[in-house]
């Protein structure tokens, strides 16, 4: 009751809570239409979570509305929305330029998967500065404990040449072993051993 009053008085967090309660039937019967009403109200109040929930709800029967809410949520900095919108841009729209923008936003939130995906995107460019940035993003992803990044970085630092980054990396066997061991500890097959 109090959450509803708060939501009705333009509290975005209460809109998120009431909408979630209504979808899941917490303390009430599930009511999708009322949940949508509260999520839409929260969306008007710039709630990234409400916009994201609406994108999920509308993904079933209104793709355009779903994508609009997903993009709005991503623009508000909601990491799960950014991750989903990046996948849409990369794999459905094939729009690398727009994907780069959202990958940067997510990477700036220390999302390791976005760091490694942005690294892969940038290293394909013909721009030496972007290639150097790609290597730094690979290193950032490794330092965020992404096992794929640790494995790749360990191999490069260990002496395996990877010209796709456009830089010459100084071999450091001890550091390479650290990254490879950490990757192996996470179950990544470090065939470089």
Task: Walk me through what this model shows.
The chain has 193 residues and is mainly α. The chain is built from eleven helices and no strands. The protein has helices at 2-8, 12-24, 32-44, 48-58, 63-75, 79-93, 96-107, 112-123, 128-143, 147-157, 173-185. It is elongated, with a radius of gyration of 21 Å.
Distance between the termini: 60 Å
Global shape: elongated
Rg, Å, rounded = 21 Å
- The computed structural class is mainly alpha
What kind of sheet is the major sheet? none
Q: List the uncertain runs.
A: none
Q: Helicity level, as a percent range?
A: over 70%
Task: Give me the count of strands.
Answer: 0
Quick check: average pLDDT? 92
Discrete helix count? 11
Secondary-structure element order, as H and E? Answer: HHHHHHHHHHH
What percentage of the residues does DSSP assign to strands (E)?
under 5%
How would you sum up this structure in a few lines?
The chain has 193 residues and is mainly alpha-helical. It has helices spanning 2-8, 12-24, 32-44, 48-58, 63-75, 79-93, 96-107, 112-123, 128-143, 147-157, 173-185.
Distinctive features:
single chain, 193 residues, mainly alpha, 11 helices, elongated
Task: Note the topology.
Elements: H1 2-8, H2 12-24, H3 32-44, H4 48-58, H5 63-75, H6 79-93, H7 96-107, H8 112-123, H9 128-143, H10 147-157, H11 173-185
Helix pairs in contact: 1-2, 2-3, 3-4, 4-5, 5-6, 6-7, 7-8, 8-9, 9-10, 10-11
